[in-house]
């Protein structure tokens, strides 16, 4: 009897410890969740503030839509439209090129046999962990060296910008499409051929639709990263192109908080919506 | 529903090599129009390879393969008009059941109304009318199997190829689908090549069985021939249970002396080449109390182990010729034996067969 | 597809099939598929990197280690380099400490919590760095919510509240936020592959929570953790935007290199500093691939083994 009651005391105690640990753990998880969304939420709140300066988010008169009411003027004064177009253009073209380059490479390394295939993969995905700053500097220096050494003038323009963007993004489709190909059941292709489909017909109507989650996720990664890219654009865009991140960075350096908050809120709304849709449709978080 | 196409398949000395591995060694056999032929053999025997060569997914390394008299070597897979049912079913997961079936129909010259009609027909044929709008993921294993079959037969292929189509199902469902598939096949009169490593499946379903081992064809024959007159020791062992006696044929050609010294009465057509051995199926043997046994062959022994299996009882009897398995029907009038009983194992002359391990003789 | 006539489609398809048949089967065709990627890599990454290397050892018209010497000798660059590495280590540890519980809760918690965590971790990733950093700028700045909260918690006083902006602390907080997803998702991927029964078995055998974590989860999740840590570390030592905004005059290697290239144009010195980052990056690329292979997928750790 004695031992039984000791045991139940002990288990009551450890149950108590367990409950505390449970709560601490839960608190930590919700704390981290708060940490992840706080800087985004604060920008949104700030954009509804009447007084542009001062430190209180909830100053008198909150919420106010003053800044949104004046949005057209704001956008016009910043030349936002041309920045947005430049960013969209570079992001879309980068997405198309990276999908093609990465998709073909993924197909090759998953479906074909290579000696040293592990080394080859490392080489192919190396831009994933290579510092962006160094990529852009290396391209910049090479271009200006070539300009000096030979008589070819490589000036920073859309094409150098595109080169930098493709370089840092193309490994993402290799990963997402490669993952899809690795899990692909080759018998599906054979079944299609058996039912009368040509090779091309099979690729188009069976293989590609089944790789769709990887393709969509890869495209979303490339688009988002390219659209938001700052440092590579800083060095490679030249003087005539100012992408959205460059514009935003200049704003913050020029101490223009309300403009950042309003523009930031709108850009954020667009990107978060895109991400949630892609996550729902294609589960892009699996590929990070 | 019946097809105009003939569906005669002929393998002539077909060889398939993967690098150093010879998956198929000079296989020769014919599947007649409308015939159901099972390819039976253990894992790695080369069964799948034979199917895939016919479907056009692998090239032959030698020999000739003809479909309705036409050499298929140069014909790409999508023009061969073979209907394949994969072990994994390979249903397109992004398409509904209907779209899966339409996929083949659209690419095999069927048009509009005809397609709708055929989809309904094949679906009701496999008892899945009304399931057309489901995705494969929302079907049970048995239902997926039926869709795969429906998809393959819908295009009226000249030959239906099935690679262990029931392998992924549990026993009860397998038994049920065995019956359904054979009914479907004979209704359609469609030439069928059916791969299995399950001997009872082959015995119950097929018109003829091709037994393979390590890329070689060991025997071709009807289920009864294969069971009652196996050509090689491998076939005898692989299909059903068997008691083997090592030993030698005597010079008179009518008896066989076992390693244990017993002399058995045997019959055989011609003296087989290779190392001979005698074998008897367990259900052809009977037991009698020691000294009371009569028949062509009698071997004395002791009951070692008794296993009740429902309709029959299995007795393991130790004798000078090793341990024998005797299987007796459970009939109430029969006297049962118990462990330790001294018995005679008896069987008839006709049930004693002599085989060798040399396949050249049988095939 | 419907706008093309069937005949046209068949024609195209036949021609392409012939082409694939002719070239697709040849031994060199596979290299053709890789050609665009390799071209981009060699032309835009490897050759230019070699150029940085060359530039870092070029003194006038001959070779020499002058630039490296000036980096090593200078107390300033040493402290920038050390600070950068310190920030990298701290951010790596912090993202792990915050990211593991989050990943675990996402995998083992309810569907709702799991979905919320995935969205809350993924969504910031898609938002322009400048905007996110601006959020921290507000939160951490003087009189902002975080210093106020800390004062209320008796960390610092009203007169001298804790300084979280324009110093190393600001950079660490900002980078931890930016890089958290790169820790959470690889860990989530590997936790998904660990059956819950393993933990239950350990509990059943008498292990407490800490024991389950230390002896079951940690060893099994190690490949994911390693991958996450390498990603976070490499990204944090090379990050530019966050340190540039939240660090104020506190420099890291990335901001230092950038200012050398944009203002003084001393290519040799800039290249020598850049080579430091390249060396770390190369080590990490190799480690990352190892970790990913151990995590079970050949490319990027997702998907099962073939
Ligand atoms: N693509 C291939 N490359 C190399 N060897 C192969 C290939 N396909 C099959 N083989 C080999 O060929 C032999 C026959 O294989 P096959 O798949 O035809 O056997 P099977 O009778 O279908 O066996 P199972 O019952 O296991 O399916 C095996 O030894 C196998 O390892
Ligand atoms: Mg097989």
UniProtKB/TrEMBL annotation, chain A:
Residues 84-278 form the ABC transmembrane type-1 domain. GO terms for cellular component: plasma membrane. CDD domains: TM_PBP2. GO terms for biological process: transmembrane transport. It is a multi-pass membrane protein. InterPro entries: MetI-like, MetI-like_sf. PROSITE patterns: ABC_TM1 (PS50928). Pfam families: BPD_transp_1. It is found in: Cell inner membrane; Cell membrane. Keywords: Cell inner membrane, Cell membrane, Membrane, Transmembrane, Transmembrane helix, Transport. The keyword Signal does not apply. This is ABC transporter permease.
TrEMBL record, chain B:
Transmembrane segments: none annotated. The complex is composed of two ATP-binding proteins (WtpC), two transmembrane proteins (WtpB) and a solute-binding protein (WtpA). The complex is composed of two ATP-binding proteins (XacJ and XacK), two transmembrane proteins (XacH and XacI) and a solute-binding protein (XacG). SUPFAM superfamilies: MOP-like (SSF50331), P-loop containing nucleoside triphosphate hydrolases (SSF52540). It comes from Halarchaeum nitratireducens. GO terms for cellular component: ATP-binding cassette (ABC) transporter complex. Residues 9-239 form the ABC transporter domain. Gene3D superfamilies: 2.40.50.100, P-loop containing nucleotide triphosphate hydrolases. SMART domains: AAA. Its EC number is 7.3.2.6, 7.5.2.13. It is an enzyme of class 7 (translocase). This is Molybdate/tungstate import ATP-binding protein WtpC. Belongs to the ABC transporter superfamily. Sulfate/tungstate importer (TC 3.A.1.6) family. Belongs to the ABC transporter superfamily. Carbohydrate uptake transporter-1 (CUT1) (TC 3.A.1.1) family. It holds the Pfam family TOBE_2. The lineage of its organism: Archaea, Methanobacteriati, Methanobacteriota, Stenosarchaea group, Halobacteria.
From TrEMBL, chain C:
One of its GO terms (biological process) is transmembrane transport. It holds the Pfam family BPD_transp_1. It comes from the Archaea. The keyword Isomerase does not apply. CDD domains: TM_PBP2. Residues 81-288 form the ABC transmembrane type-1 domain. It is a multi-pass membrane protein. The chain crosses the membrane at residues 31-53, 85-105, 112-131, 164-191, 212-233, 267-288. SUPFAM superfamilies: MetI-like (SSF161098). Gene3D superfamilies: MetI-like (1.10.3720.10). Keywords: Cell membrane, Membrane, Transmembrane, Transmembrane helix, Transport. This is ABC transporter permease. It comes from Halarchaeum nitratireducens.
């Amino acid at each position: 009897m004695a031992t039984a009651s000791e045991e139940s005391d002990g288990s009551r105690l450890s149950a108590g410890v367990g409950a505390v640990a449970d709560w601490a753990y839960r608190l930590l998880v919700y704390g981290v969740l708060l940490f992840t969304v706080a800087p985004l939420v604060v920008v949104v709140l700030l954009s509804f503030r009447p007084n542009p300066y001062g430190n209180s988010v909830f100053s008198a008169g909150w919420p106010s839509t003053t800044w949104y009411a004046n949005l057209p003027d704001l956008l016009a004064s910043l030349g936002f439209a041309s920045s947005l177009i430049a960013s969209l253009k570079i992001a879309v073209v980068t997405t198309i090129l990276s999908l093609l380059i990465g998709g073909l490479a993924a197909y090759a390394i998953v479906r074909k046999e290579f000696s040293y295939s592990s080394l080859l993969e490392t080489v192919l995905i190396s831009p994933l962990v290579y510092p962006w700053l160094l990529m852009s500097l290396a391209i910049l220096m090479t271009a200006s060296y070539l300009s000096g050494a030979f008589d070819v003038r490589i000036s920073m323009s859309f094409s150098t910008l595109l080169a930098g963007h493709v370089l840092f993004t193309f490994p993402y489709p290799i990963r997402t499409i490669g993952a899809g190909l690795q899990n692909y059941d080759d018998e599906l292709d054979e079944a299609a051929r058996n039912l009368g489909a040509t090779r091309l017909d099979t690729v188009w109507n069976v293989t590609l639709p089944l790789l769709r989650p990887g393709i969509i996720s890869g495209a979303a990664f490339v688009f988002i990263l390219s659209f938001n890219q700052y440092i590579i654009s800083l060095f490679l865009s030249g003087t005539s192109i100012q992408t959205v991140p460059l514009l935003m960075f200049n704003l913050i350096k020029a101490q223009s908080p309300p403009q950042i908050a309003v523009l930031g809120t709108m850009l954020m709304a667009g990107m978060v919506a895109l991400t949630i849709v892609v996550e729902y449709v294609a589960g892009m978080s699996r590929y990070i | 529903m019946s097809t105009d196409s003939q569906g005669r398949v002929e393998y002539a000395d077909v060889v398939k090599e993967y690098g150093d591995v010879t998956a198929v060694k000079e296989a020769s056999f014919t599947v007649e129009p409308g015939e159901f032929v099972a390819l039976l053999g253990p894992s790695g025997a080369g069964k799948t390879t034979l199917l895939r060569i016919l479907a056009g997914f692998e090239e032959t390394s030698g020999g000739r393969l003809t479909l309705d008299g036409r050499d298929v070597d140069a014909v790409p897979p999508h023009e061969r008009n073979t209907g394949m049912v994969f072990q994994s079913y390979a249903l397109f997961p992004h398409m509904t059941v209907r779209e899966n079936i339409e996929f083949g129909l659209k690419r095999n010259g069927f048009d509009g109304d005809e397609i709708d009609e055929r989809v309904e027909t094949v679906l009701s044929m496999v008892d899945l009318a009304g399931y057309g709008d489901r995705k494969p993921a929302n079907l049970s294993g048995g239902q997926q199997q039926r869709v795969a079959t429906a998809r393959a037969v819908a295009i009226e292929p000249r030959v239906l190829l099935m690679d262990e189509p029931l392998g992924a199902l549990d026993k009860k469902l397998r038994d049920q689908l065995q019956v359904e598939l054979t009914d479907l096949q004979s209704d359609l009169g469609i030439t069928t090549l059916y791969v299995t490593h399950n001997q009872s499946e082959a015995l119950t379903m097929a018109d003829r069985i091709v037994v393979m081992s390590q890329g070689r064809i060991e025997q071709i024959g009807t289920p009864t021939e294969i069971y009652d007159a196996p050509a090689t020791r491998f076939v005898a062992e692989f299909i059903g249970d068997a008691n083997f006696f090592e030993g030698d044929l005597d010079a008179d050609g009518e008896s066989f002396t076992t390693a244990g010294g017993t002399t058995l009465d045997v019959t055989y057509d011609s003296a087989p080449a290779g190392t001979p051995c005698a074998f008897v199926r367990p259900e052809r043997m009977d037991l009698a109390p020691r000294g009371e046994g009569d028949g062509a062959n009698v071997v004395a022994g002791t009951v070692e182990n008794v296993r009740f299996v429902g309709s029959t009882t299995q007795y393991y009897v130790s004798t000078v010729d090793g341990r024998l398995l005797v299987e007796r029907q459970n009939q109430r009038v029969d006297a049962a034996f118990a462990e330790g009983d001294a018995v005679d194992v008896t069987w008839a002359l006709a049930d004693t067969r002599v085989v060798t391990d040399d396949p050249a003789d049988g095939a | 597809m419907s706008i093309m006539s069937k005949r046209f489609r068949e024609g195209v398809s036949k021609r392409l099939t012939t082409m694939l048949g002719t070239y697709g089967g040849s031994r060199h065709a596979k290299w053709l598929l890789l050609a665009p990627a390799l071209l981009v890599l060699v032309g835009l990454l490897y050759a230019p990197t070699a150029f940085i290397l060359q530039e870092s050892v070029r003194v006038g018209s001959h070779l020499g280690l002058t630039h490296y010497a000036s980096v090593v000798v200078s107390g300033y660059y040493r402290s920038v380099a050390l600070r950068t590495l310190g920030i990298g280590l701290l951010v790596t540890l912090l993202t792990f400490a915050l990211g593991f519980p989050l990943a675990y809760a996402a995998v083992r918690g309810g569907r709702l919590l799991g979905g919320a965590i995935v969205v809350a971790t993924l969504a910031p990733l898609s938002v322009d760095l400048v905007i996110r950093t601006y959020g921290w700028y507000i939160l951490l700045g003087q009189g902002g919510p975080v210093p106020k909260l800390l004062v209320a918690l008796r960390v610092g006083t009203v007169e001298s509240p804790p300084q979280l902006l324009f110093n190393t602390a600001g950079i660490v907080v900002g980078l931890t936020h930016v890089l958290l997803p790169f820790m959470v998702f690889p860990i989530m991927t590997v936790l998904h592959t660990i059956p819950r029964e393993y933990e239950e078995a350990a509990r059943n055998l008498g292990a407490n929570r800490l024991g389950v974590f230390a002896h079951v989860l940690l060893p099994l999740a190690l490949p994911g953790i390693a991958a996450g840590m390498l990603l976070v570390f490499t990204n944090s030592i090379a990050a530019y935007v966050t340190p540039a905004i939240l660090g104020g005059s506190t420099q890291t290697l990335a901001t230092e290199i950038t200012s050398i290239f944009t203002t003084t144009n001393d290519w040799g010195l800039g290249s020598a500093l850049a080579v430091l980052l390249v060396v770390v990056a190369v080590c990490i690329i190799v480690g990352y691939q190892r970790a990913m292979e151990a995590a079970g997928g050949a490319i990027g750790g997702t998907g099962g083994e073939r």
